[in-house]
C-alpha cells in the first residue's frame, strides 16, 4: 500500500505519492481548492487515493519556529481529521518547517524559472514532506 503526502495550503494542496515499498516519494500534482469548502478537494483526492491504492496520508504540519502550533497548523489538523473520516486513511503529521524554502532551493538549483517554480512549489514541498517521513521509517 502506498502513502500520499500532502502540503495543505489555503488555496492549493501539493500532492506526492510513495512507491509501493515506501522508499521514494514522487510529485503527483497540485490541487486548487477552497479551504472553506473541503468538497472542492474531495473528488480529486478520492480519485488519487483509489488509483494509487493509498492506505496512509502524511500531512505537513506547519509549526512555528519555536515548535508551537499556530493557525495554519490547526488548519492542517482539521484537514487531517476530515481525511481520516472521509477516506478511512491512517493520517500522520510531519513537521514541515522550512520545506517550502527547501523546495524553492531545489528548484532554483535546477534553474527552474520563477513562473514555473510558482506552479510546482507546493508539489515539491509535498515530496520533501513525504520523503522525510519515509526516510525516518527506514
UniProtKB/TrEMBL annotation:
It comes from the Bacteria. InterPro entries: RNaseH-like_sf, YqgF, YqgF/RNaseH-like_dom, YqgF/RNaseH-like_dom_sf. It is an enzyme of class 3 (hydrolase). Keywords: Cytoplasm, Hydrolase, Nuclease, Ribosome biogenesis. Pfam families: RuvX. The keyword Cytoplasm applies. Residues 1-103 form the YqgF/RNase H-like domain. The keyword Cytoplasm applies. Its EC number is 3.1.-.-. This is Putative pre-16S rRNA nuclease. The gene is ruvX.
